[in-house]
Specification:
By secondary structure, this protein is α+β, with helices and mostly antiparallel strands. It is 46% helix and 16% strand. The chain contains four helices and five strands.
């Protein structure tokens, strides 16, 4: 299968507003695959490009591509066993909130799942911003005039960053000690 074939599958794509006025998007089944843009349409297009690259890299390294998540295998019904003390406390809290025990437990689980999703999204965003800052620091450092006194040697290093808007194959000069 080609990356385009994979992207025709029903992967969970999420686009969220960003605090800078733009948008942030990710494919939930592809860890580290995200994009940013100024509009929902641009962000979605960038996400599709990033996902295609993400799949190409995984395939070139012989790694599997995760299957799309699906709701078809879940009925929405579970049997839950609780210690009596937790059952009692949950029932009292549900009554205090003037709701059923079922609604109270669904809300509690949803809050936990939502908090974890938010944490993961924020962690990915922070990693992306840190990588951009580190890249910019290297560019700033290497674009400053550097002395070429005798005895100093320089070597070229290849910097690549996958999953971001930074162009791969940028080359910078790093002073060797």
């Amino acid at each position: 299968m080609t990356p385009r074939d994979y992207l025709r599958e029903p992967y969970a794509r999420v686009v969220m507003p960003d605090e800078t006025g733009g948008y942030y998007a990710e494919i939930l089944e592809f860890p580290g695959c995200f994009a940013e843009g100024d509009s929902v349409e641009d962000t979605y297009k960038e996400l599709e490009n990033a996902a295609e690259s993400w799949i190409e890299v995984r395939l070139s390294q012989g790694q599997e591509i995760p299957a799309p998540s699906s709701n078809l295998d879940y009925s929405g019904t579970i049997s839950l066993r609780l210690p009596r003390s937790i059952h009692k406390r949950a029932a009292v809290m549900a009554e205090r909130d003037k709701t059923s025990l079922n609604t109270y437990l669904v809300t509690a689980v949803a809050e936990k799942v939502g908090a974890q999703d938010l944490y993961n999204a924020l962690a990915q965003r922070m990693e992306h911003r840190m990588a951009q800052s580190a890249y910019q620091a290297i560019v700033d450092f290497t674009s400053a005039p550097m002395p070429t006194a005798a005895g100093n040697t320089f070597r070229q290093l290849k910097i690549e960053e996958r999953g971001s808007t930074i162009t791969p194959n940028n080359r910078v000069l790093i002073r060797r000690r």
